Amino acid sequence: MGTRSIRWFRLPQASHFHALQCKLNFRDHKDLFEDDTDKVNYVLSFLKGTALDCFESAILDPIKPPWLSDFNLFLEELEANFGTYDPVGEAEAELKGLRMHESHQATKYFITFQQLATCIEWGNAALCRQNYNGLTKHIKDDCHDLFPMLSPISCPCSEPVTVTSLTPFRSSPT
Question: Which residues does the chain have with pLDDT short of 50?
Fold first, then answer.
């Protein structure tokens, strides 16, 4: 599955399959998902349109492909058919375009930023600058009041980037 801890696949018709949510469901209901075949069938039951069409012939074929009884192989099949061609490039583009609007909550912005940041290999300074650039003006002003040395070309981040290190409203214990 790779090194990313959260994976999602963009399926046709703007629906999303979230492997993490399914895995949490499998963990909570172990009695309902005794083997990988149960897990694959559960996920297949949510597919519609082109996504379902893609798997229909394999499901109906008397000779079953290996991924129908192996959840990890099934995830690989989903990714091969519907995953992004360039996940790092896509995450970089989303990160560069991520902007917090005046009506948005800061927490949502920082969580989205963190999810995208885990998919790329930028240094802390570049991540911090990109994070700052995406903030609303009033938060940048607040940051400047909290960190007078903060400017678009400098950043107080010297530790690994986490949601808490990127959130200017978290105060350190005194």
Answer: 1-16, 152-174
The overall pTM is greater than 0.70: no
For residue 56, count other CB atoms closer than 10 A to its CB.
Answer: 12
Answer yes or no: are the C-beta atoms of 61 and 53 closer than 8 Å: no
User: What residue spans define the domains of the chain?
Assistant: 8-82, 87-166
Could you tell me the two tokens for 36? 């990988």
User: What residue type is 56 in one-letter code?
Assistant: E
Q: Are 109 and 70 in contact (CB under 8 A)?
A: no
